[in-house]
Write a structure and sequence with these properties.
Bound molecules: 4-(N,N-dimethylamino)cinnamoyl-COA
CATH architecture: Alpha-Beta Complex
Number of helices: 11
Shape: globular
Radius of gyration: 17 Å
Structural class: alpha/beta
Largest sheet: 6 strands, mixed
């Protein structure tokens, strides 16, 4: 598969994937999700690749969310279907890979972007990183596992606060919350991710894949299915139309609650 929206390379046991739509702050459209699935699958099956580092291009964003301009015209059925498909192709796929994925978060990680980082096995960030799940400000809910994985990582109270206020947290707060395990200056981000990768490279690939499965097995919940169902319902509301239209028109949304 020829990639248009991502860059890949392989070096010293590490597979690098860079999401490369800097003009759209690396927002995830359908094609990017498919390309990421293909590249991740390829690295997962490549015995020479023992760790993957995932990052965004440019100095501003890891991923600023799902591509709002693409999903704003979806109806409820398409919303539910695409949420389920997206989870299968990317978010659940990453979480359950045998090869560990380090998200090197180099700026905004919002909505689907934070959900992608949360599905990764390790998150390291630059000092300019900002994280949030702003979906309710668009009239929708996180639909790629965010309601479940954020709560698993930061606890229910902090997840409720972050999701219901739709506000962003800076890198330092995200470090305190346990979303990131390290925060470093932007110029040191990739080197820091490589150092963590090199520690993993010393260990047994088979044992690592068993460890990932064992850790994940304690976190499967029915909540993921409920999230997809409610996400689909949100697509048929007037609030969803208003929230996404307001974003595109660069104005404040006026929600009716319908
Ligand atoms: N989608 C599309 N374009 C985006 C984008 C996004 N998420 N984020 C930014 N851009 C575009 C902007 O529209 C702008 O494009 P032009 O106007 O230049 O053409 C360009 O990137 C630069 O953005 P700004 O001009 O806004 O840059 P600022 O520095 O002023 O602001 C920002 C940066 C990150 C604070 C701001 O761009 C922003 O608030 N972005 C949106 C954040 C957000 O709400 N993300 C979406 C969260 S909801 C689905 C499943 C899951 C989801 C959806 C569907 N299905 C299964 C259907 C998940 C939804 C989400 O992720």
């Amino acid at each position: 598969m020829e990639y248009q929206n991502i860059l890949t390379k392989k070096e010293s046991g590490i597979g690098y994937i860079t999401i490369n739509r800097p003009k759209q702050l690396n927002a995830l459209n359908k094609q990017t999700i498919e390309e990421l699935h293909s590249a991740l699958k390829k690295f997962n099956n490549d015995t020479e690749v023992r760790v993957i580092i995932l990052t965004g291009s440019g100095e501003k964003a890891f991923v600023a969310g799902a591509d709002i301009k693409e999903f704003m015209n979806f109806n409820s059925e398409q919303g539910r279907e695409l949420a389920a498909k997206g989870q299968e192709l990317l978010f659940d796929f990453v979480e359950n890979m045998e090869t560990p994925v380090i998200a090197a978060v180099n700026g905004f990680a919002l909505g689907g972007g934070l959900e992608l980082a949360l599905a990764s096995h390790i998150r390291i960030a630059s000092e300019n990183a900002k994280v949030g799940l702003p979906e309710v400000s668009l009239g929708v809910i996180p639909g790629y596992g965010g309601t479940q994985r954020l709560a698993q990582i930061v606890g229910k109270g902090r997840a409720m606060e972050m999701i219901l206020t739709a506000e962003m947290k800076d890198a330092e707060t995200a470090l305190e919350y346990g979303i990131f395990t390290q925060v470093v200056p932007l110029e040191n981000l990739m080197e820091t991710a490589r150092k963590t990768a090199s520690k993993i490279l010393k260990n047994s690939p088979k044992a690592i894949s068993f460890a990932i499965q064992a850790i994940n097995s304690g976190f499967y919940t029915k909540g993921f299915v409920k999230e997809i169902e409610l996400f689909g319902q949100a697509f048929s509301t007037e609030d969803f139309k208003e929230g996404t239209t307001a974003f595109v028109e660069r104005r404040k949304a006026e929600f009716s609650g319908k």
